[in-house]
Amino acid sequence: MxxxxxxxxxxxxxxxALSTGEMNADDLKKEEFEKRIKVYxxxxxxxxxKDQIRSLTRIHENFARLLxxxxxxxxxxxxxxxxxxxxxxxxxEFIRSIPxxxxxxxxxxxxxxxxxxxxxxxxxxxxxxxxxxxxKGTSINKVDNLTEIETKIMSAIFEKACDYLQEAWETxxxxxxxxxxxxxxxxxxxxxxxxxxxxxxxxxxxxxETTGMINxxxxxVVLEPIIPKLSMQYWMQTEKKVREPDEVKQIEKKxxxxxxxxxxxxxxxxxxxxxxxxxxIGDVIELNQLIDGPLxxxxxxxxxxxxxxxKMNKKLAVQVLDTWKEGDEEDE
Length: 332
Fold this sequence. Notes:
By secondary structure, the protein is α+β, with helices and mostly antiparallel strands. The chain has three domains: about 10-40, no CATH class; about 50-235, 3-Layer(aba) Sandwich (Chemotaxis protein chec), CATH 3.40.1550.10; about 260-330, Surface presentation of antigens (SPOA) (Roll). It is about 35% helix and about 25% strand. The protein has helices at about 10-20, 25-35, 50-75, 90-95, 120-130, 150-160, 160-170, 220-225, 230-235, 245-255, 275, 330, and strands spanning about 80-90, 105-110, 115-120, 180-185, 195-205, 210-220, 260-265, 295-300, 300-310, 315-325. The strands form two sheets. The protein has a six-stranded antiparallel beta sheet with strand order 1-5-6-3-2-4. Helix 3 runs antiparallel to helix 7 (about 160-170). The radius of gyration is 34 Å and the shape is elongated. The model has no long low-confidence stretch (mean pLDDT about 80). InterPro entries: CheC-like_sf (IPR028976), Flag_FliM (IPR001689), FliN-like_C (IPR001543), SpoA-like_sf (IPR036429).
């Protein structure tokens, strides 16, 4: 029988308690029997291990960072999104936990079967729409009577999130998410059976001064084909790709054919704004470069060589004299 190993002092104290009557042997047996019994609720079937839930949490932490950047740029205001929790519960329990009228975005995720649901709290959704329309991000809760224009704007906002869902999941599986349904009443949504186990990832969301939750509901049927990839062993694997010699030669050939800009700097000068405004055709600007001094040759914007000017085939040219080193300009 497995268990903790008792020290000699603990054994002596236990024997002493039994001999004095402070503890009964029957009580010990009963306590040991109770420890072997675990309460299991079949309505809340735990179909995912803690390791797999942690993997899903990591995926959606990345998704939250991507959404933070995307919405900050789109809404031009402070946006912060982070993972609050990840739980596995029956689908019916999830539906009961969200508002009766809310924003529901349903995504198809081929090649995986089933659909993923993104539930956005109305406070958050209206704050986003208000910012998109040029407002301050004020939130109003009137989701029960969305107009066609409001529906179009909101669905367009969350449709763009498909790309970031794909990017967040690409470490596990290549999916092609598509917004297939936009709904406001959870009772009209039939994704899976009520007792189906779903993973719900809750995201704390703040837009300016408005806060709320975004819940991502993933049914078991979606995750079933990729469950082995959610284990810690899969994440720790490092597949080292060995390039074939022909592939290396092809890469080297492509690099050798790449074009790069090269510029020769004749010199620089500092003048005042007033002198610059007074410049006219024929004026001469004195440079900091001597006529017989070496010139700086740049590859792109990076100094690489020093050279001297000249002509080749009746064209201006520069002859490379040496490689450029830090401090060459100061020595001149």
